């Protein structure tokens, strides 16, 4: 304590460190303060003491011992708990960060290290022209996923210099306010409507983005894949435990980067965390569609998600002989420069469509008539310790339920069984080459899931029944306007699977390595010429698509995979003596046997009554309908990660096109933040 005659009886010394670039100016200052001095007053005293003329508006105090920011400038030192032993750093809130995007490009930009990660990601997406930032988050790679890469790097004699896109001059990343009209739907479309290529006029679409036309092309266009050798060096998960490592590094959206140990110029991954891509519109989402496509492409190449050989060839055909060729073709590049759409005309066109309200006759028909399906299908019920029982019945699909009868004549009476599909899980069971068109239904019951298989006779019948099942699982009927588009989407996907027996192109004329477009496991299985021929066969059915159509088709095919959208965590359920894997998806939780990979039980979010976390023992407890409750601790990550996943998916389910695109940040943190 200082003498009362000089400073007063309650003054004490506080050591402050200033983070500035002036080498000839001291960085540590000892100020005499009192406990009732507010943070804003402390800033003023410090700036006057420094005597350096510069803009200090972005600076704030970081409390090193407590790992927290002192951002409430009206709070006093006593209220903050600051005493003489505190180490306070006066440092900029916006610092440089390196972000690895889904397309494996690295950008360097300034990000708020004091804002919650949810807000920081939103600002990053504004800089990168990506709508719906709530679907993305920041991921820190675990040491295990980097080991293989580092081991390979040691063998390289020449260091590899990474090409980094510098966006540090972005007004958004510098902390300036965003343009209020940021996501206006009256802006110029971001894709050329004819060629499907990104339009250069959209560079001014985000008025506060630092992206030049060239930089926008880097983010919105796809380029050839890396070499097979580089692909083999990258981390590929082999087991469910390996896949759990990929999901362990998500940052806490309710805390800042500094609070989570992220330092200036660190590298993080920007990834789509939530697999519910809302309002995906080719006119406004050039960068977003391309980055989703790239995340899907790398997930398939590195076998982060399982797919069959037939599906792998389809994915290879889309990316290798369509997306890559169109992205590099001179026609696509020319259209980028020439494609300029009048902004006012686009706005009037959108307004006209909105006012007309679409086809009113279809709307009236939907209101007055609920369609139904009636067909002979085969029912398959798996039986333990015996073969599957397969029998033909007369099925009627009405509203969101399936009823089946012994034959068509008995359909006027009581059904043998009525299956309510609302909230069920629908999985395709298709092998086009073998003429197998099956639908796997996992219907929730009190003790788990009731497994039922339906077998259709042909593609058309399968498409109609599959589309009806998908809609019914979401609580919609066939009267919904999305039914026919869903049928067409399924038919087009089946057409892609139905590859022709002869290739129309000469494999020798292809100048790309086919091994670049399939996972290393499939690349080893075939010789290069064989792989090229098989990919060309699949390519015949997609050769007429535009660039954006090819990417959207790739994304749709990715979404149709059974394991799509699953994030894995190693957990220990209450009362269990062994570890299990928990799969978290947009609409359900799945308990999976860690040894065999077989699903044990599925719980739907639609049946969930409440969930909570016991922060003392780090246990997540969830209650479902019909008095079903579960509890588990997470072993591969913090329980807050799973808690945020559940709350995040529920938050995303509240989105609606009728609302403006302003995010309810308070609701997100209420659902995901928790009280530790």
UniProtKB/TrEMBL annotation:
PROSITE patterns associated with the record: FERM_1 (PS00660), PH_DOMAIN (PS50003)
InterPro entries: Band_41_domain, FERM_2, FERM_central, FERM_CS, Kindlin/fermitin, Kindlin_2_N, PH-like_dom_sf, PH_domain
Keyword set includes Hydrolase: no
A GO CC term assigned to this protein in UniProt: cell projection
MF terms (GO), sorted A to Z: integrin binding
Entry's localization field: Cell junction; Cell projection
Keywords linked to the UniProt accession: Cell adhesion, Cell junction, Cell projection
A GO biological process held by the record: integrin-mediated signaling pathway
Top-level taxon: Eukaryota
Residue stretches making up the PH domain: 378-474
Homology family: Belongs to the kindlin family.
Name this polypeptide is given: FERM1 protein
């Amino acid at each position: 304590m200082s003498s009362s005659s000089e400073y007063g009886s309650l003054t004490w010394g506080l050591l402050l460190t200033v983070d500035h670039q002036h080498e000839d100016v001291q960085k540590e200052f000892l100020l005499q303060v009192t406990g009732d001095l507010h943070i804003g007053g402390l800033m003023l005293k410090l700036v006057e003491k420094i005597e350096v003329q510069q803009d200090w508006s972005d600076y704030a105090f970081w409390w090193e011992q407590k790992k927290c920011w002192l951002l409430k400038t009206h709070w006093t030192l006593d209220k903050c708990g600051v005493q003489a032993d505190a180490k306070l750093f006066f440092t900029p809130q916006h610092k440089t960060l390196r972000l690895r995007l889904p397309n494996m490009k690295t950008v360097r930009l300034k990000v708020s290290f004091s804002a919650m990660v949810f807000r920081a990601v939103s600002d990053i997406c504004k800089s990168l022209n990506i709508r719906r930032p709530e679907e993305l988050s920041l991921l820190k790679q675990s040491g295990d996923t980097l080991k293989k890469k580092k081991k390979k790097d040691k063998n390289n004699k020449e260091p590899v210099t990474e090409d980094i896109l510098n966006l540090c001059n972005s007004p958004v990343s510098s902390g300036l306010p965003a343009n209020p009209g940021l996501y206006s739907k009256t802006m110029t479309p971001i894709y050329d409507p004819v060629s499907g290529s990104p339009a250069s006029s959209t560079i001014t679409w985000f008025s506060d983005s630092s992206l030049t036309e060239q930089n926008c092309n880097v983010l919105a266009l796809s380029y050839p894949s890396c070499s097979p050798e580089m692909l083999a060096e990258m981390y590929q998960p082999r087991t469910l435990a390996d896949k759990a490592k990929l999901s362990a590094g998500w940052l806490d959206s309710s805390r800042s980067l500094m609070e989570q140990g992220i330092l200036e110029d660190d590298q993080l991954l920007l990834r789509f965390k939530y697999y519910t891509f809302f309002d995906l519109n080719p006119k406004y989402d050039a960068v977003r569609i391309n980055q989703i496509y790239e995340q899907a492409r790398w997930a398939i190449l590195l076998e982060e998600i399982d797919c069959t050989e037939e599906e792998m060839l389809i994915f290879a055909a889309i990316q290798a002989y369509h997306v890559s060729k169109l992205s590099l073709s001179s026609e696509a590049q020319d259209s980028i420069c020439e494609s300029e759409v009048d902004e006012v005309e686009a706005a009037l066109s959108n307004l006209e469509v909105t006012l007309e309200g679409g086809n009113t006759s279809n709307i009236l028909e939907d209101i007055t008539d609920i369609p139904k399906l009636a067909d002979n299908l085969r029912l398959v019920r798996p039986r333990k310790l015996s073969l599957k029982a397969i029998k033909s019945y007369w099925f009627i699909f009405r509203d969101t339920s399936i009823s089946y009868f012994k034959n068509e004549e008995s359909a006027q009476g009581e059904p043998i069984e009525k299956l309510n599909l609302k909230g069920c899980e629908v999985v395709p069971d298709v092998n086009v080459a073998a003429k197998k068109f099956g639908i796997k239904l996992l219907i929730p019951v009190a003790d788990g899931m009731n497994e039922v298989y339906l077998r259709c006779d042909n593609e058309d019948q399968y498409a109609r029944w599959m589309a009806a099942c998908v809609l019914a699982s979401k609580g919609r009927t066939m009267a919904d306007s999305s039914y026919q588009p869903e049928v067409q989407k399924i038919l087009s996907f089946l057409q892609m699977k139905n590859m022709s027996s002869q290739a129309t192109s000469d494999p020798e004329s292809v100048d790309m390595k086919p091994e670049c477009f399939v996972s290393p496991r499939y690349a080893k299985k075939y010789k290069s010429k064989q792989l090229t021929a098989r990919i060309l066969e699949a390519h015949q059915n997609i050769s007429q698509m535009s660039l954006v159509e090819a990417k959207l088709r790739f994304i749709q095919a990715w979404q149709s995979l059974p394991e799509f959208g699953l994030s894995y965590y190693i957990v220990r359920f209450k009362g269990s003596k062994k570890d299990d894997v928990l799969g978290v998806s947009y609409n359900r939780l799945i308990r999976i046997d860690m040894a065999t990979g077989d699903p044990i039980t599925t719980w739907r979010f639609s049946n969930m009554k409440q969930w909570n976390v016991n922060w003392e023992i780090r246990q997540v407890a969830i209650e479902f309908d019909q008095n079903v409750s579960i509890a588990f601790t997470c072993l591969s990550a913090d329980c807050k990660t799973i808690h945020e996943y559940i709350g995040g998916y529920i938050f995303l389910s509240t989105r609606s096109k009728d609302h403006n695109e302003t995010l309810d940040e308070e609701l997100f943190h209420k659902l995901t933040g928790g009280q530790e």
